[in-house]
DNA sequence: CACTTCATATAACGCCGCTATAGGTGCTAC
DNA sequence: GTAGCACCTATAGCGGCGTTATATGAAGTG
């Protein structure tokens, strides 16, 4: 057993690589930088990780298990749809917290040697969606829903990472999140798939009012009231059909 | 003026770089490969492009102008929403046709030095969406809508590129496309709100929704929520002129 | 102790991006 | 026509990179 005073070279390499990746702004990190920072010689790196890619794969795997751990430890609200929102937001937040790691994980996808992590993320999301499916809240299979949600989630996160932290607009995330969720699930408490009976005119009118409210805010409602009102309006508007 | 028999070295470099990038499966392309393929010596490359990055920026810029050209030359169907679908599909198709180019364009985004192309793509999409807005079909600003759509579009395309061509399921694209579009725009064909004047349209739409709700209660809202919702709706409907 | 096994180090190879320097090549001025 | 001048291209090489052949130490086992 090692004392904490001096971690093993393998650990030092991993930490140094992770730290350098996080610092060096997207530029590639050289093995020499890493071995120097870990106070270790080149062959040690190759002994433990095989090659540079192996080292950074390990870094990414560690980051990913941190991500998955965080995802798995999120509480279950009991409301599957609310859970979906939570996991979406958690994904985005992880990307913003570890931008360079995230870019390696989800941005630099090489076909063929596809990161198994993306598949794992998909599988995990599918689990959450399966719970929603059990509650009869899905209008597509959990597999399809997971892929669509993950794709949009990654796209949004990449876009947010790409722009300066100062002018990041998280509304992009919320808006896209609701879009995908409402296409994939029904938000109704009861009797999910009515679709046939509901009078379409309600939906049409709700959409119209929603649109009208975008350009002109009524002064009869306070801003907090308006916020909730719009949310409900959107719920009504997005009754899933097709 | 050069005959076509032997393009200028600059052109040869560009073509060689583009070809090598398309062939070499995601692995980096070396300047030596490029100069050799272009039958040119190293300093020529640096004379014309300054830098390896400059060369590949040029390749990407060419690919991007091909993309934008294709986008701009798409016919306008006259139906803004249908146009949105067309441009979405065109984006995905471009990514699948030029996967490696696409990954460099939209996958490897480096913060700071943000590819101006992503911004251009966003701007172009915003134009299309502005047309939809003029037809009163948007429920959010064209800017927000463009960002959300582009983010989802990129996410979907990256995911499709990442998986083997054989088992690609374009339904992922269609499904996500409809999700985002329906969140951003109304799909109703007829006169959502007559928009001709600013404020009255809100009142008109509110009255219409109120009327529709009398005959059919939406299941997206609980009864207590509905009660409050109707109350607010009435407040909006009874706005005294203005 | 001899022996194996693992972990680390020295020193070097070959490829890479890039450049200091210099040599054509074609145009304009006289 | 040739001197001057920009432009374009080539020879040769530097320093940094990923990687490895080889050797040395350290730790457990008979």
Mean pLDDT of chain A: 83
Unreliable sequence segments of chain A = 190-199
Order of helices and strands of chain A: HHHHHHHHHHH
Bin the helical content of chain A: 55-70%
Binned strand content of chain A: under 5%
Q: State the total count of DSSP E strands of chain A.
A: 0
Q: Name the biggest interface.
A: A-B, 75 and 76 residues
Oligomeric category: homodimer
What does this structure look like?
- The structure is a homodimer of 242-residue chains.
- Chain A is mainly α.
- Chain A has helices at 9-23, 31-37, 42-49, 52-72, 80-97, 99-107, 116-134, 142-162, 171-184, 200-215, 223-237.
- In chain A, helix 10 packs antiparallel against helix 11 (223-237).
- The termini of chain A are far apart.
- In chain A, 40% of the residues are buried.
- Mean pLDDT of chain A is 83; it is low at 190-199.
- At the A-B interface, helix 6, helix 8, helix 9, helix 10 and helix 11 of A face helix 6, helix 8, helix 9, helix 10 and helix 11 of B.
- The first copy, chain A, binds a DNA duplex (30 and 30 nucleotides) through helix 3.
